[in-house]
């Protein structure tokens, strides 16, 4: 029988987090490092990644990589395996946003969003899973969204991408779970990040609307997502797979 707190420990795990230099990705890295994992942050901006690693300390490192460079996924996993160790947990968190009326969203813009969120995530998943199958151990975590769960106007490409993630989680989990690999997602509600503060502080009406439909009547904190990520990648959730977990203060069930 597992015991507390070791059941929530990530000691011995190597976690690769895409989009890990800022925001929710960095919040997950903070919590996972605190839980004992070795964390590798992946992103396009070296200075941002280096600053995050400096904050996180000796248990963290980074690799510069654009997830849309699909042919580079295998080389990235090989490099991390060589320099840090076999990746035991992949967090597909990298993403881009596009706020635009649906009828003004071009096919090229739509495809760019899908390439980052979906095709890039699949490339990394495909690169990392063979090793996990060989070791019969691994977790894959996606950052979904409230847009995965209900309609939000002016973000049709983002909605399509985040909704596809929910389907990928179900499909991957049924295919990989027999090999000891669990696949889940977190669907964050409105979280207080630097980006959300910039968006909401200058728009009190929008902020009031968001808080008005949030049963807890407040924004979440980045660490709320971070600790949920620890749970879903730790032995505490060893019988949990194929799940999209809302961490949203009740938004997805409230009225």
Which term fits the overall shape?
A: globular
Summing up helix and strand content along with how strands pair, one would put the structural category as alpha/beta
Widest sheet: strand ordering: 3-2-1-4-5-6-7
Number of strands: 7
Beta-strand content: 5-15%
Mean pLDDT: 96
Structure description:
This protein is α/β, with parallel strands linked by helices and 255 residues long. It has a single domain (6-246), classed as 3-Layer(aba) Sandwich (Rossmann fold). It is 44% helix and 15% strand. The protein is built from eight helices and seven strands. Strands 3-2-1-4-5-6-7 form a seven-stranded parallel beta sheet, with helices on both faces. The longest helix has 29 residues, at 107-135. It is globular. The mean pLDDT is 96.
Concise description?
This is 3-oxoacyl-ACP reductase. Helix content is 44%, strand content 15%.
Helix and strand arrangement:
Blueprint lengths: L13 E5 L4 H12 L3 E6 L2 H11 L3 E5 L8 H11 L5 E4 L14 H29 L2 E6 L12 H21 L4 E8 L5 H8 L2 H9 L9 H12 L10 E4 L8
Helix pairs in contact: 1-8, 4-5
